[in-house]
Amino acid sequence: MPADHGENTPLLDTSRPHQGRLRNALPQWTSIQWRVMLLSAFLMFSVNFGHFMGTAPQLLIFENTICENYKRSLGREASHTTLGLDGDICKSEPVQTELAFISGWKNTLDVLPALLLALPYGVLADKFGRRPFVILSTAATAISWFNLPLRLVWLTGMFRAPGGGDQFATFILMTIIADVFSEKQRTTALFRLASLPIIAEVVATPISATLMKVNPWTPFLVGPLIVLAGAVFSVLVPETLNKSESRSTEGTAASPLPPSKPNARSLITSKAKHFIADTKFLWETPKLLICLVVVFAGVLDKSSLFLLIQYASAKLHWTIARASYLISIRGCMTLATFLVFVPLLSSFLIRHLHYITLEKDLVIAKIAVTSGIIGYLLIFTASDAVLLTIGCLFVSLSMPFVITVISIATCFTPAEHVATLYTAMSVSQSIGIIAAGPMFAKLYTAGMHIGLEWSGLPFAAAATLFALILISLLFLGPNS
Asked: Using an 8 Å Cβ cutoff, are 323 and 313 in contact?
């Protein structure tokens, strides 16, 4: 008997069950899975924390600048011009129309230059590795946050272009997650990663709103510094291409290198043929095409974010700081959706109804889209804060849509092409941003022109688009 044991020492070690329960409470991941998830989560959190710190202050700075310019123009042109909206000239139709125009086109031009490089980057990431593109994309995103004066903010997208843009940065992190997690673990891991921007949204927005009461420039300038600090840690992300290759089917051998050095023309031709061959699987799989077409709707929450603040501020006569709290409310519900509702629903569908992964993801996607339809319609018709808040909560339930569609598409994709698929998804979402920004701004302007009660037209359009997507999901089932 050991010296420290006596007759009063329990025969069973009661400390071990506690340690076992603690161990079982944590995900049973390997060291590489923990490293990838923690670093990816930190990058996602820091970039999005900086983004949400600066979103509402940027809108207020834009509104103040436009309002001051409009006041000066009234002084020169017509002193008897009506102020509109109970005398608050900054909430008048001309100011709000210009604000929607600038913000909408900024969202579009932020992603347009990067769109040209994203898909080639994805193909290269499948060939040579993920890590260089994580570093490049996060660094470019951080630099682009240092904005220029009004109207020149449209040029900030040029700084994002070398890194492939924000969407590419997100999707390359998702690719790394898909590399190291199995099919059964993948959806849950992606939802956990996707919860980090929501946590950043919930935490950063009230901090930003509080600082805005003193000076909007403070949170606006702090935002890009946080993004830059997070980007520094991208160099610690491990390379996971070999993990993806180890799970891919054995087969095609690499083509031998040409015996002689090719000239420039033949090299370009060869690279173009390889690019077409590497993306061929996208165009030859109808279900992947459907996923690519519908996933761009996932940007509606991002494209409507700036407009939701502006819409609530104008329609309910709130300050922009007060309207920004809607983002925190929506974020809390989204976080509960990702961390509680979706895991419980997934567990129920798999354990009790014995659904396969594809069937389970389709059910979640359909519920998410239906919630989006209800939410956007409530926001469109809202005449008070209660209806508007309920609409935002329903929109929160639609947030899992993109992750589930990505997981569905991954089921139809060979492991060696996952980065290309995810990058194609980022391109699809970028196209959605390009289309949604000006479209939402135009619809908002049209609604304001008809009357303040019609200023929610963009949200009615979003509900209609979600209804069309719900029909498209019917063709993604395993037996369809």
From this structure: yes
- Angle between the 131-144 and 165-180 helix axes, to the nearest 10 degrees? 150
For residues 47 and 201, is the Cβ–Cβ distance under 8 A?
A: no
Dihedral sign, Cα of residue 138, residue 140, residue 143, residue 145: negative
The torsion defined by the Cα of 153, 135, 52 and 225, in degrees rounded to 10, comes to: -80
Output the CA angle 120-124-128, nearest 5 degrees: 175
Structurally, how many domains does the chain consist of? 1
Residue 359 located in a structural domain = yes
Q: Are 345 and 364 in contact (CB under 8 A)?
A: yes
* 262 inside domain: no
Provide the Cα torsion 164, 168, 169, 172; round to 10°.
-120
Best CA proximity match to 102, nearest among 314, 310, 249: 310
Residue type, position 472, single letter: S
The 3-state secondary structure of 54-109 reads HHHHHHHHHHHHHHHHHHHHHHHHCCCCCCCCCCCHHHCHHHHHHHHHHHHHHHHH
**C-alpha closest to that of 470 among 257, 290, 261, 313:** 290
**Reported pTM:** 0.65
From residue 471, give the alpha-carbon distance in Å to each of 91, 205, 391, 461, 467.
38, 35, 22, 16, 7
From first to last of its 480 residues, the chain has per-residue pLDDT tens of 444 455 454 544 444 555 555 455 566 777 888 888 888 888 888 888 888 888 888 888 888 888 888 888 876 544 444 444 444 788 888 888 888 888 777 777 776 666 666 667 766 777 777 777 777 777 777 666 665 556 566 666 666 666 666 667 777 787 888 788 877 777 778 777 877 888 888 888 889 888 888 888 888 888 888 888 888 888 888 777 776 555 554 444 443 334 444 444 554 455 456 556 667 777 777 888 888 888 876 667 666 766 888 888 888 888 888 888 888 888 888 888 888 888 888 888 888 888 888 888 899 999 999 999 999 999 999 888 899 999 989 998 888 888 888 888 888 887 777 777 877 787 777 777 777 777 888 888 888 888 888 888 989 988 998 998 888 888 887 766
Position of tokens 């997100």? 170
Would residue 283 count as lying in a domain?
A: yes
CATH number of the domain encompassing residue 221: 1.20.1250.20
The helix/strand/coil state of 237 is coil
Q: Tokens representing 454?
A: 């019609």
Domain assignment of residue 2, yes or no: no
Domain limits for position 312? 30-243+279-475
